[in-house]
Known about the structure:
The chain is an alpha+beta fold. It folds into 3 domains: 36-179, PH-domain like; 198-256, no CATH class; 285-464, no CATH class. The protein is 37% helix and 28% strand. It has helices spanning 36-57, 71-98, 136-140, 165-179, 199-207, 210-229, 235-256, 315-320, 330-340, 402-407, 430-451, 457-464, and strands at residues 59-60, 67-68, 99-104, 107-112, 118-123, 127-134, 143-150, 157-164, 192-196, 260-264, 267-272, 277-282, 287-295, 303-310, 323-329, 352-353, 366-369, 373-378, 382-389, 395-399, 409-415, 423-429. The model has no long low-confidence stretch (mean pLDDT 83). Keywords: Membrane, Transmembrane, Transmembrane helix. This is YdbS-like PH domain-containing protein. The chain crosses the membrane at residues 39-57, 77-97, 206-229, 235-259. It holds the Pfam family bPH_2.
Amino acid sequence: MYPGPxxxxxxxRYVPPAPPPPVRFSxxxxxxxxxxxxxxxxxxxxxxxxxxxxxxxxxxxSDGAAVSFSPVVLLRFLIVSLVVGAGxxxxxxxxxxxxxxxxxxxxxxxxxxxxxxRVRRIxxxxxxxxxxxxxxxxxxxxxxxxxxxxxxxxxxxxxFRYLGRRAAGDLxxxxxxxxxxxxxxxPEAPERPVYRVPFGTLLxxxxxxxxVIATFLLMIFSLVFLIAFRELAMLAxxxxxxxxxxxxxxxxxxxxxNFTVAVSPDGVRLRYGLLETRMQTVPPGxxxxxxxxxxxxxxxxxxARLDVTVAGYAGERQALSSTxxxxxxxxxxxxxxALVFPGTNFDAVPLLPASQRGMTVDRADxxxxxxxxxxxxxxWLCRRTDIIAHARAQSVRLTVNPVQRLLGLATVHVxxxxxxxxxxxxxxxxxxxxxxxxxxxxxxxxxRAASGDTAHWAARQNQAR
Length: 465
């Protein structure tokens, strides 16, 4: 017979199990998650089936018209698949066993290889950003990839594919803590949410752009012409326009969905992504320059985009990580700029217009500076306000093109590390341009001397207190 429900004894109190202790990567040598090996082997097999496997299964008859299968073809396919599968498993195990890493003091030590070992020691002060990326497949297995972006060098990215989700967070927290000069067991710093981009704002920001609107109208016109006159040649116009809309609207929407910005003592934290989620952490002082982008249609609802240059990103990674806010009210963008460059208000910096003899169309363009930042505004259909902190300036230079030489004008460039944001004040009178170069160089030297090195920033703050 059923004994009936069992009730706990009087006074019983359920105590949930304690969470497992965090992983200390400064103790011992560590490897990535064991599931990395089968995932890599699975990826190799998928590529094999797509490029070679299915063609091996198909054979044509003597007339070359029909496709048929034979026992010989099937046997050949099985033999080749077993050989490739064994190679894929070996490659997965080789890659998993060959990667080891640990934290020694203020250095991240990465070892690669089995037969020939290669040891790389990276000072934590070179870390520019730490990204935690979770592609769709790895989210099923609760795995994550940690990408450590370094300053300069050809190999400026160190990827750890893949770690457990909890281990990935522990590695990120320990790297950020030690780079700030704190003990490795320091818990993750709390964060303060700044803004979450609503879906309507993101969609509106992607759609309300002149190139997107023009491409959409071109596609509609070609489809109407195709239906009305039965002209199939218009597909050569409609299909590229459709692909362009997918790339300009659908792809960024999937990438920047659920975009959230938060600030914490260890830097700016970004979370975004629909299919592939990404958590990006930019430590304090690593943002080199920012640009407030305001397309003409966005000025009606008062929206803006915030682009950024962070040293260490290169190539495709630079393009993927150059947006600090895809679309937001301009007041929110100004607030985030003030958080990135503390104590600044770029709207309060007086801008001197360019020379009347220049080629500038919009007389709202101009450039100005204060003791902390240099600001340059330009553009008419798409207005850009480029901002760089004097402490982040790499050089200040003056250039003159042939037209400017005839008009007695020059352009002043305040150079940041290579990136999306390039700060320049165009069409200045030659004497004014030389004065801007001298004063900006002096301000940059003073700012660098006052700010000092950004390494161990938390330890210096604690000593100052």
